[in-house]
């Protein structure tokens, strides 16, 4: 994997700009397989560039133009791609786990086999993106329909307690890029070690076995993890280890 110095990278980018302007001395950027981890490419115009298999982990690509670029099998884990233009880009089998894609334009992009687990996609445009439904579904933590059990850490007196919940089939539910999830309402099955518990963030919300708790409102944006809703985890160990 080739590592580029800042000067070498600037030479490639300058030649690419000339290529975009159809200048004779220009050449399309070919950074396939390059080591660009943590590189600062924010605002760069790499439209149509070859970046297949490149390591762009934790790279700064905010506002970059990567439209029609070939990013197949690229490693973009933890990259900042907020407001980036990825329209028509080939992102097939790319690793976008934990990437910040807020406000990114992914319209008509090829996301076949891409890893979007824990990626942040608030405000992203996925219209016409190939394979986006499957890529997002593979990163889902919760069943899209039907009832299921959930777990939540609450407070009782001066101690932490675990509450076992049932998320009803009719309740709207969501999760973003984190393991914490939300539901519109939930039925309390058990308050383990106490008869009553309160939310760690809103002490007015009481959890008692046999009762239903309902959120004050509901936010449809799944990427706003800490927004309105009854918050929970899918597994008990995650709830027990959560630090409010």
Topology diagram in text:
Blueprint: H1 6-20, H2 132-138, E1 148-156, E2 159-167, E3 173-175, E4 181-183, E5 185-192, E6 197-198, E7 206-207, E8 212-214, E9 230-232, H3 236-241
Antiparallel strand pairs: 1-2, 2-5, 3-4, 4-9, 5-8, 6-7
CATH class membership of the largest domain: Mainly Beta
CATH fold-level name of the largest domain: Pectate Lyase C-like
Alpha-beta content class: alpha+beta
Mean pLDDT: 92
Across the major sheet, the strand order is: 1-2-5-8
What is the rounded Rg?
Answer: 22 Å
CATH superfamily of the largest domain: E3 ubiquitin-protein ligase SopA
Tell me the series of helices and strands, N- to C-terminal: HHEEEEEEEEEH
Oligomer: single chain
Any idea what the CATH architecture of the largest domain is? 3 Solenoid
Describe it.
This protein is α+β, with helices and mostly antiparallel strands and 244 residues long. The chain has two domains: 1-139, Pectate Lyase C-like, CATH 2.160.20; 148-241, no CATH class. Helix content is 11%, strand content 17%. The protein is built from three helices and nine strands. The strands form three sheets. A four-stranded antiparallel beta sheet has the order 1-2-5-8. The longest helix is centred in the N-terminal third of the chain and has 15 residues, at 6-20. The two termini are 42 Å apart.
């Amino acid at each position: 994997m080739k590592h580029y110095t800042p000067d070498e990278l600037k030479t490639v980018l300058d030649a690419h700009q000339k290529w975009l302007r159809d200048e004779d001395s220009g050449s399309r950027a070919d950074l396939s397989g390059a080591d660009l981890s943590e590189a600062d490419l924010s605002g760069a115009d790499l439209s149509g560039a070859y970046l297949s298999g490149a390591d762009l982990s934790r790279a700064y690509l905010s506002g970059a133009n990567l439209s029609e670029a070939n990013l197949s099998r690229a490693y973009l884990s933890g990259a900042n791609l907020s407001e980036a233009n990825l329209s028509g880009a080939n992102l097939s089998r790319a690793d976008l786990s934990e990437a910040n894609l807020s406000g990114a334009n992914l319209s008509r992009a090829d996301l076949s086999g891409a890893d979007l687990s824990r990626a942040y996609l608030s405000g992203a445009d996925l219209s016409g993106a190939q394979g986006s439904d499957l890529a997002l579904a593979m990163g889902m933590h919760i069943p899209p329909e039907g009832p299921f059990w959930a777990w939540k850490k609450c407070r009782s007196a001066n101690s932490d307690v675990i509450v076992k919940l049932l998320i009803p089939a009719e309740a709207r539910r969501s999760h973003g890029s984190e393991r914490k999830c939300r539901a519109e309402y939930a039925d309390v099955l058990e308050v383990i070690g106490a008869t009553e518990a309160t939310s760690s963030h809103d002490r007015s919300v009481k959890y008692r076995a046999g009762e239903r708790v309902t959120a004050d409102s509901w936010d449809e944006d799944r990427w706003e993890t800490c927004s309105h809703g009854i918050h929970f985890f899918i597994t008990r160990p995650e709830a027990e280890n959560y630090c409010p």
